[in-house]
Design brief:
The chain is an alpha/beta fold. The protein has a single domain (3-326), classed as TIM Barrel (Alpha-Beta Barrel). The chain is built from 15 helices and eight strands. The chain has helices at 12-17, 20-31, 64-68, 79-86, 91-105, 134-149, 176-185, 197-204, 210-224, 226-229, 243-252, 256-260, 263-277, 288-295, 309-326, and strands spanning 3-9, 35-39, 53-57, 113-116, 161-164, 191-196, 232-237, 299-302. Strands 1-2-3-4-5-6-7-8 form an eight-stranded parallel beta barrel, surrounded by four helices. The relative contact order is 0.14. The model has no long low-confidence stretch (mean pLDDT 96).
Length: 331
């Protein structure tokens, strides 16, 4: 049986809306989960949360691949804006940032740390006519991680890195060759995969109904094969049925306003677009149990994006109800 978690973040605004440490503890107990997967930041993780934090999600950058290859015009952007766009102004800064965010999370002693293993092309997020390939991105990711991890004792990170699929170039988990590329290029041993179910549905581009979406995920996992599935140590469990929205925006492409905007303007239009593609909704039926049974991760994070605590609790209760009925989560 996997250990069940719920996602929170280390940012003050999130901890405050959840009621601080006591509120997070109540959320965990009411949800019947073991603890949390915390989104950390570019600052020391809150050590007082150690008992509640079982795993971490390391900070992500919008289009780090373009940053790695010097495609962004960064003049006029603050250091903080560069962090969230691409981890830094150049490769040395990016490597230092990734090493730093791993070090910041280490005192929490997490079972794993999730890191996005893909990158959108900021200049083509609506049309998804990405200017680079999965292999290009995975090769750059390996370079970045190998350099960052080499700073730690023995050339290994202080906790396993769980590489997460997205629907952008890089790790989509659509083909066994993606996993093979990581196995060939990564120079450290302590890594695993984090299967994000909603992201995989987005990558399939035809998910409009829950049962059909689950069947699509099952077929994708079958294509990966058992040896790749054994790499899956963590799962982000949520539902995304955005095929109609994706179809519409892909056909419309980038607007003139978007094309003419500077990076800051592009980001302000891209963020809402990402949210409309990636629903982070709870499963309405117990079909999600089939995905968990097929992948057999050690940890399942019920991952939702919500504006308030009440909605987070409601979504968590809805999705975990399927596992309670099975006896996999305490009542």
């Amino acid at each position: 049986m996997p250990e069940h978690l719920v996602n929170i973040s280390a940012y003050d605004f999130d901890l405050e809306r959840l009621g601080g440490e006591d509120g997070v503890r109540n959320l965990v107990e009411a949800g019947g989960v073991s603890g949390t997967e915390m989104l950390t930041g570019h600052f020391p993780a809150p050590a007082g949360m150690r008992g509640l934090v079982k795993a971490v999600h390391l900070p992500y950058a919008v289009d780090w691949f373009s940053g790695w290859n010097g495609r962004h015009e960064l003049d006029g952007l603050s250091d903080e804006q560069c962090l969230f766009l691409c981890y830094g102004r150049d490769r040395d800064e990016m490597v230092a940032t990734v090493a730093g965010m791993i070090a910041n999370a280490a005192p929490l002693r997490p079972a794993y740390g999730v890191m996005h293993a893909a990158s959108p092309d900021l200049y083509r997020v609506f049309s998804q006519r990405n200017g680079f390939s999965d292999r290009d991105v995975l090769a750059a990711l390996a370079e970045l991680l190998n350099s960052a991890v080499s700073a730690f004792p023995g050339g290994e990170p202080p906790f396993p890195l769980a590489l997460e699929n997205l629907w952008w170039p890089g790790l989509r988990l659509m083909d066994r060759s993606e996993v093979s590329e990581l196995e060939r290029r990564l120079e450290f041993e302590s890594w695993t995969l984090c299967l994000d179910t909603g992201h995989l549905m987005n990558a399939l581009r035809d998910c409009r109904e829950e049962e059909a979406a689950v069947e699509g995920v099952e077929r994708a996992l079958d294509r990966l094969g058992d040896d790749s599935l054994e790499r899956i140590g963590a799962m982000h469990l949520h539902l995304s049925l955005s095929a109609d929205y994706q179809e519409r925006t892909i056909s419309q492409g980038e607007s003139a306003e978007y094309l003419e905007a500077d990076i800051d303007g592009k980001l302000s239009m891209a963020y809402p677009h990402f949210g409309r593609m990636d629903w982070h909704s709870p499963f309405e039926t117990d079909a999600c149990l089939r995905i968990v049974d097929r992948a057999r991760p050690a940890h399942v994070t019920h991952e939702f994006v919500t504006p308030c605590r009440d909605e987070l609790e409601a979504r968590l209760a809805k999705q975990t109800s399927h596992f309670r009925a099975q006896g996999a989560i305490k009542k």
